[in-house]
TrEMBL record:
<dbReference type="Pfam" id="PF04248">
    <property type="entry name" value="NTP_transf_9"/>
</dbReference>
<dbReference type="InterPro" id="IPR007361">
    <property type="entry name" value="DUF427"/>
</dbReference>
<dbReference type="InterPro" id="IPR038694">
    <property type="entry name" value="DUF427_sf"/>
</dbReference>
<protein>
    <submittedName>
        <fullName>DUF427 domain-containing protein</fullName>
    </submittedName>
</protein>
<feature type="domain" description="DUF427">
    <location>
        <begin position="1"/>
        <end position="87"/>
    </location>
</feature>
Length: 93
């Protein structure tokens, strides 16, 4: 699977976990040069507190377009150390 934004592959892995129609990529499969940690947070009742990355490609910025759970609940242990995408990031095989 590939995560693509602004014409650039920003993550690639054959080992994604799909939860609620989102592909969670292993954290080490993201191309870190395109990711900048954000101060944004949100809470999922069953997964825990999410943190975000802003994606930057070729001078364009996609605010909080990737998220991950630094600490996951017992129910969400399958997505520990994984990153998911939204806000126009396409995921395709």
């Amino acid at each position: 699977m590939k995560a693509i934004w602004n014409g650039q592959v920003i993550a690639e892995s054959n080992d994604t976990v799909v939860i609620e129609n989102n592909h969670y990529f292993p954290h080490d499969s993201i191309k870190k040069e395109y990711f900048e940690k954000s101060d944004s947070k949100s809470v999922c009742p069953w997964k825990g507190e999410a943190s975000y990355y802003t994606i930057k490609v070729d001078g364009n910025e996609n605010l909080d377009a990737a998220w991950y759970y630094p600490e996951v609940s017992e129910l969400a242990k399958g997505i520990k150390n994984r990153v998911a995408f939204w806000k126009g990031v396409t995921v395709e095989s």
